[in-house]
Each structure stands twice: as structure tokens, then as C-alpha cells.
Design goal:
Layout lengths: L3 H6 L5 H4 L5 H20 L2 H42 L1
């Protein structure tokens, strides 16, 4: 049996990548988002495209930070549940 901690350390487990598109609904939504993104860019002026890309970059960074915070919270919560299970 592989050690989950060692697998995580060596980069064989990548939660942020494994969790992003793990359901058919998420994959479908990503497709819709890509299509709408392309449609919006077609009707933007160059200045609007630049603003939209800046917004997109900020949104991506925000989501990355949010995902990290959620992962940390969920990990800590899971550990608290495990500790409680083993100590009571």
C-alpha cells in the first residue's frame, strides 16, 4: 500500500488538478464557459478585450486562492474528524 503522504510529497497526488473537472456536469459547464468566452471576445473592442482579459486573470487568481483555502479547511476538518473518531 502506497503512503498517501509520500505520494502527495512527490507530486503524484495533485488535488487542485484532480478536483477541477471530476464530474460530467463540471466538464459540460467548462465547455459552456469556453463557448461564451469566445462569443464575448468576438464583439469586444481591443480595449474591452484587454479589460476582459485582466478580469479573467484576476478571477483565475482569486479562484486559485479560494481553492487552496477550501482544501486547507477541508483537510483540517477531515483531520479533526479522524482525531475525534480515534479518541472517543
Amino acid at each position: 500500500m502506497k503512503s498517501m503522504i509520500k505520494e502527495l510529497w512527490h507530486g503524484n497526488i495533485i488535488p487542485q488538478e484532480d478536483s477541477r473537472t471530476n464530474s460530467p456536469q463540471m466538464k459540460e459547464l467548462l465547455g459552456y464557459m469556453a463557448r461564451h468566452h469566445e462569443e464575448l471576445e468576438k464583439c469586444f473592442t481591443d480595449e474591452q478585450k484587454e479589460t476582459f482579459e485582466k478580469f479573467h486573470d484576476c478571477w483565475s487568481e482569486y479562484m486559485s486562492l479560494a481553492e487552496a483555502a477550501i482544501f486547507e479547511y477541508a483537510f483540517k476538518l477531515g483531520m479533526q474528524i479522524a482525531i475525534e473518531t480515534f479518541t472517543k
